[in-house]
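Check this.
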Amino acid sequence: MHIQFKPVQLRLGQRVIDFFRSLGERGHLTRMQDVLGTYVHAHMLGNDSGEPALITAGHQDNIVAAQTLLAAGADPNAVDEAGCSALGWAVRYNRINMAILLLSAGADPNSESVRPGGLSVLMEVCGEGRVKLLLALLAAGADPNLQSMAARKTAMMMAAARGQLQAVKILLAAGADLNIEDSDGNTALDLAELARHVGFAFIGDDPKHIEIVRLLTATKQDQLQPPKEPLDFLKK
């Protein structure tokens, strides 16, 4: 008769958590791997609140601990009780090295942001103009055309509305679709124009919003134009 054992969910006390933390802080990577590999499954570690150990390491920006946990089999997409992943927290606190480590270990680049509204981590970094994280997420396969659950926003909409010119340029190069509409029927260009007019009423014309409107208008017109010459293979 075949018996299938279900894994036991481990809850470590604070002393044990402190022990692993001290090993990580002192750089005892091999020792930490030995302990983890011998006694527990890394993806089941948790602190007293039930938070996965990888997320705890992410909160503390402890790269050594995160490397050890991932090497021992921790799930890079594990979430805490609020449904937030280690990558979501790394992005929230702008921890670039931690985010890159998690992405290289297989963290979902389309993970949900810890911010409310169903935004993706890509939308969050675009709205705040954090270019290094933006490039890391796109390199890992983040979808520039993904829409948020609530307002149906895209990363381009977030960048355009908030005047993040560099993010807009990067998203255009990544193939962002300018025809997508949010839940109110607005495109990224509509939101950029609205932000420009609102800003003008308070502080005058913002050069970044002017340039964003110009770029999006030109790109959208180019996307609507048919090719001037037929493709070579169609001439044959």
Summary: The mean pLDDT is 80.
